[in-house]
């Protein structure tokens, strides 16, 4: 998994970078086939924002954002929100195959425009 760290108008310490990388690696291990993880740190006056994006093939991007006065609590909140999304995406299974047969278990579907079944 490739981890990309962006800092926009932000001074990010090495320990904060390490925390972000560990958290993203842990989340990437729970969600299969994560290709890219993007962590953005943005500072706009007193408000600090952290955004984490996990990208995997055949899956929508998982995005979590959090705001706080400091980066550490914002990172913790974003990681917590992303953990919830990962847990939700692991639980939900897409139905496979075609449309279910609503007539019964083994009965063929009858088209009323065709000849009657015998």
In CATH, the topology is named Double Stranded RNA Binding Domain
- Shape descriptor: elongated
Low-confidence regions: none
Order of the strands making up the biggest sheet? 1-2-3-4
Structure report:
The chain has 118 residues and is an alpha+beta fold. It has a single domain (2-90), classed as Double Stranded RNA Binding Domain (2-Layer Sandwich), CATH 3.30.160.100. The protein is built from two helices and four strands; from the N terminus they run E-H-E-E-E-H. The protein has a four-stranded mixed β-sheet with strand order 1-2-3-4, covered by helices on one side. A hairpin with a 2-residue loop joins strand 2 (36-44) and strand 3. The chain is elongated, with a radius of gyration of 23 Å.
Summarize the structure.
With 118 residues, the protein is an alpha+beta fold. It has one domain: 2-Layer Sandwich (Double Stranded RNA Binding Domain), CATH 3.30.160.
How are the SSEs ordered, and which strands pair?
Blueprint: E1 2-8, H1 14-30, E2 36-44, E3 47-55, E4 62-68, H2 71-91
Parallel strand pairs: 1-2
Antiparallel strand pairs: 2-3, 3-4
Helix pairs in contact: 1-2
List keywords for this structure.
118 residues; alpha+beta; Double Stranded RNA Binding Domain; 2 helices; 32% helix
